[in-house]
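Entry:
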Amino acid sequence: MNIIGELAQLIDHKRDALLAEWRAQVRTLPAARDLDVPNLNDHMPHLLTELATALRVGSSETIAQALVGDSPSTHGLQRAKDAFDIEEVVAEYNILRGCIHDLADRNGLSIQGRPFHVLNRVLDGAIGSAVQSFATHKAVEVQRQREQYLSFVAHDLRTPLNAIALSARVLEKLLARDCTEAPQATQMIKILNRNVHHLEELISKVIKENTNLVPEVGVKLARRNFDLWPLVEVLIHDLYPVDGTSTTRLTNTVPEDFVAYADASLVRRIFQNLISNAIAYTPHGEVIIGAREIGVAGDVECFVQDNGGGISPERCQTVFEKHETDPDKKGGFGLGLAIVKTFVEAHDGVVTLESELGVGSIFRFTLPGRQR
């Protein structure tokens, strides 16, 4: 038997030992440390079979035919999901290359000439296919995260923009009562209203173009200790035009010395969506915002409670789903509560709803303590 055939037979007979040696070295890669054996192996056993077949064929024209075309590309996609970086994907193939050379040396085989070229051709082709698949998946993921972020930001802009619009309407009514007011002020109010309307249309367009995105990936946290009472108080102040116009009282019952450990910007957006939602259902009532510590681990439970019209039991089951909107409320895109759920779960927390028609609703969400 020639050297190529001997190498093919050696790879077949020593495959388990070869894989064990490869796994031991690949475990040094950060992303591979916690993977179980099946996930770590992934397509490598098949690749060794394909390599042995390619060696037996021995013809460069038929090596590509001897390989399973989508095996390395599927592996690249899996490694992206396993949180490998592209250097680690290349490294694990090169580690396999080194293990095969070591196996051949231990058995007195010299991988030169034809065996060397076949081995490199197969492994280099696998690397290329895996890397291409990996890079494509990562590019799509990055693009999806950017579009998702844009959609979230656009949705969040609607609340302060609504406050500006309502403030402009209040000012317009006050100016109409005072005939001595300069005409320039009336003209400025008209310009303000026109531009607010233009911004509302742009924001709605962004949201509509991105509502096909699933708000579940790419939320990165910047946790820190922060005082929760002033965060809520500032938010109430920002929402005051909405509050004052609708005669809804906003009450902050968060203890003044209450400290949370979370991403402050995301918590603000969670409260912003929940309070805005509560105001929409409580045009002549009260919205209470509060927080308390629960459990021995220092977990935090926050709530937004209203005494408005409430939500039907059927809708309570689906309010956190994307695109879920109240048929009686126009202008919504069904993203607000889906965003709340996404941001709460990014903190490893849970959001719940209790509601009764004619009585009101209470949304609660938890933030795990720093110890966790």
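The chain has 14 helices and seven strands.
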